[in-house]
Amino acid sequence: MSRAAGHTPAARVARIESLSIPLPQVFDMRPGTPLARLLPLLLACWLLALGGCATVGHVDRAEVAGKTYVVTGASSGIGRGVAEKLGSMGANVVLVARRTELLREVAAEVQARGGQALPVTADVSRADDMARVMRETLARFGPIHVWINNAAVGTIGRFVDVPLEDHARVVDVNLKGVIHGSHVALRQFRQQGFGSLVNMGSIESESPLAYHASYASTKAAILALGRALNEELRLAGLRKVAVSTVMPWAVDTPFFQHASNHSGREPAVILPDDPRKVADAVVWVSLHPREEFPVGWKANLAYAGHRVAPDLSERLSADVMHRYQMEKAPPAPATSGSLHRPVEVGRGVDGGHREPPGAVGARPTVP
Ligand SMILES: NC(=O)c1ccc[n+]([C@@H]2O[C@H](COP(=O)([O-])OP(=O)(O)OC[C@H]3O[C@@H](n4cnc5c(N)ncnc54)[C@H](OP(=O)(O)O)[C@@H]3O)[C@@H](O)[C@H]2O)c1
C-alpha cells in the first residue's frame, strides 16, 4: 500500500523539525558552547550568593547593650556561645539549663565581659520551671526583649533500636520545651507590645536525616510552630513581635557527647560549622527576625536543594548518613547521653570535632 507523500516518517520528522522552535544558542549546553564554559562560573556565583545570604550583618554593641535576653541551654555549646557574645555586648542575660555549676561559670564570664547575668536552674520540659524563669527574669530585669529557646537533646540510631523512652524524652525537651518557653514568652510579649522569640531549629527542620528520626521530627515541628505563630501575630496586629527559627548545619559543640546513641557507632559529625559563627547568627536574627534562617552556606545549599528536589536530596543525604554513621564510624557503646539527667562531660562552647586527630580534646569527625 502506497503512502501519501506528506505522511511518510521522513516527512513527519521534517515537519516536526520545521515546527519546533529552536532554543536560542545562548541556552545550548553542549560541551564547548558558551553556556557550558560559563557553567562552573555560574555555579560558583550561586554558591557565593547563598553564602552571602547566610552572612550575618554586623551587630553594634549599642543595639544589644541593656537589653534583656533569656537563653535556654546556656550551659554549653551554641547557647553558651550566645551568652558570652551577649555579655561582651553589654546585655542582661538570663542563663537557663540544668547544670547549676556551669551556669554560674557562664554567668561569671558574662559579667567579666561587661554584661549582667542571672543563672536559673531549670528543666525546659517542665512548664512550671519555665514559668519560674519568667518570674525571676521580670523581677530582676523587667521587660524581656528576646527569648531564645535553644535547649535540646538528640538521639541517634535506627528508629526501632532507640528505646521508646529516649524518643519520648527528645519530644519532651525539644518540642514541649519550646512550646513551654514560647508560651510564657509570647504572653509577656503581647502584654509588653514587643519582643523577639528565637527558636533553635536545625537544617533537619527542612531536610530530615536517617537515624535521627525523632530529633528531626521535633525540629520540623519547631519550624511549623514558628510559621503558625507568625500568622497569629499578624492576625492580632502585633507588628513588634516576631518568631524566628534558626536552622544550622552540623555544629562543633558537645551536642554529640550529650546525645543518646543506639547506633552502635560514634556519632557521625559531617563537616561541622564553628559554633561561634552560629552564635553570632542567633544574636543577629534576634534583632532582624527571619521566619526561617538557615545558617552558613552548607545549610543554605541543603535547604535550597531540599526545596527544589526533596526526594533526591533525602535519598542522597540518607545514603551519606548510612555510609558515615552505620558503616564508617568507629564502634561505640549504647548510651542515653544527657537526655534523662545531665552529664559532667561537654562543658564548653566547642565539641572538639574540628581539632586535628590526636590533639587534646579532639573527637571523631567524618568524613
Ligand atoms: N550541634 C549541632 O550539630 C546542631 C545542629 C543544628 C542545631 N543544633 C541545635 O542547637 C541547639 C544547642 O545545641 P548544642 O549543639 O549547643 O548542644 P549542647 O552543647 O548539648 O547544648 C544543649 C544545651 O541544652 C541544655 N539542656 C539539655 N536538656 C535540657 C533540659 N531538659 N532543660 C534545660 N536545658 C537542657 C544543655 O545543658 P544541661 O545539660 O546543663 O541542661 C545544654 O546547655 C539545640 O537546639 C540543637 O538541636 C545543634
Keywords:
367 residues; seven-stranded parallel beta sheet; two-stranded parallel ribbon; globular; disordered N terminus; binds NADP nicotinamide-adenine-dinucleotide phosphate; SDR_fam; oxidoreductase
Protein topology:
Elements: H1 9-19, H2 34-54, H3 61-64, E1 68-72, H4 77-88, E2 92-97, H5 100-112, E3 116-121, H6 127-141, E4 146-149, E5 155-156, H7 164-192, E6 195-200, H8 213-235, E7 241-248, H9 255-258, E8 260-261, H10 275-287, E9 292-295, H11 296-308, H12 310-328
Parallel strand pairs: 1-2, 1-4, 2-3, 4-6, 5-8, 6-7, 7-9
Helix pairs in contact: 2-11, 4-5, 4-10, 6-7, 7-8, 11-12
Give me a quick take on this structure:
The protein has about 375 residues and is an alpha/beta fold.
Question: Would you give an account of this structure?
Answer:
The protein is of the alpha/beta class and 367 residues long. The chain has one domain: NAD(P)-binding Rossmann-like Domain (Rossmann fold). The chain has 12 helices and 9 strands. The protein has helices spanning 9-19, 34-54, 61-64, 77-88, 100-112, 127-141, 164-192, 213-235, 255-258, 275-287, 296-308, 310-328; strands at residues 68-72, 92-97, 116-121, 146-149, 155-156, 195-200, 241-248, 260-261, 292-295. It starts with 8 loop residues before the first helix and ends in a 39-residue tail after the last helix. Residues 72-79, 97-99, 102, 123-125, 150-153, 173, 200, 202, 248, 250-251, 253-255, 258, 338, 342, 346 line the site of NADP nicotinamide-adenine-dinucleotide phosphate.
